[in-house]
Amino acid sequence: MDTRQLSAFCEVVDRKSFSQAAERLGVTQPAVSLQIRSLEKRLGTKLLDRSGRRVEPTEAGQRLYRAAQRMLALEGQLLDELAGDGDVLRGELALGASTGPGGTVVPVLLGAFFRDEVILVVPPGHAFAGRQVTLDELRGEHLILMQEGAGVRQVIEDELRGGPLRLRDLDVRLELGLQESVKSAVAAGFGVTFISRSGVEAELAAGTLAAARVKGHEPVREISLVRPAGRSPTRAAEAFVDFARAKLAA
Asked: Which of 78-86's residues contact partners 24+ apart within 8 Å by CB, and which partners?
């Protein structure tokens, strides 16, 4: 059904006049009359009573008027959503992330490429706190690691590969599945760990954990944005990517 005809019909009913409806729509009166006749022909019934001084809807016209109001409102809503409602961003944004970025990076943004520094974290008051230490010194410490497959663990394994010391040569005492569990174990004094700086910013600021560096090593974790091939991103998704790039580059 042509919504232009419905719009013309509703304007005539609202103003009880073809001429006023035409003025409101910015068209000629004959154009409005033609739209109403076409609508009546399509529906096979008379919609307006033109016998009096004012135009009034027939019984069928009253039913159509109520339905047309709903249809026009839905059309307006649909157009707003598809057009983004001008400068107002609307839509649904679905994000997925691994446990590390999901607990630290994503909440800060709520990139296409983001580099997150991986640091050695120790309990407050530890001999390594605020220092640059050697791998030989690290060998004498109990090490707490994320489980195999975790992003940070892979970064450290890659960083040490090709050097004189591998991860298996260190004194690994605990392997845990959650970043929060690792932080709690370090804070409790069970050992030291490698972790993304973004994941411990609050603890470092509060003094419940301390940072250290390993001489000759500056590992970073690359966090990438992955999208399905062949699928057009929504305006909300595009806006989020732009925001993430600007936020994480700052």
From this structure: 84/235
pTM of the prediction? 0.51
Give yes or no for a contact between 43 and 65, defined as CB atoms under 8 angstroms apart: no
CATH: 3.30.930.10, 1.20.1290.10, 3.20.20.70, 3.40.190.290. Which one for 100-224? Answer: 3.40.190.290
Looking at domain 3-83, which CATH architecture does it have? Orthogonal Bundle (1.10)
Name the residue ranges covered by the structural domains of the chain: 3-83, 100-224
What is residue 30's predicted lDDT score, i.e. its pLDDT? 92
> How far, CA to CA in Å, does 241 sit from each of 23, 81, 116, 212?
46, 20, 17, 32
Are the C-beta atoms of 192 and 186 separated by less than 8 Å? yes
Pairing of strands 220-224, 113-122: antiparallel
pLDDT band of residue 212 (cuts 50, 70, 90) is: very high
Q: Does residue 95 register a pLDDT over 70?
A: no
DSSP annotation string for 199-242:
GTHHHHHHTSSEEEEETT---EEEEE----TT-PPPHHHHHHHH
What contacts 20, CB < 8 A, 6 or more positions away? 11
The answer to whether the 3-83 and 100-224 domains have the same CATH topology is no
In DSSP notation, 36-48 reads HHHHHHHHTS--E
Using an 8 Å Cβ cutoff, are 209 and 171 in contact? Answer: no
Closest CA to 114 of 226, 217, 31, 227: 226
**Residues, the chain, total?**
250
Report helix, strand or coil for 85.
Answer: coil
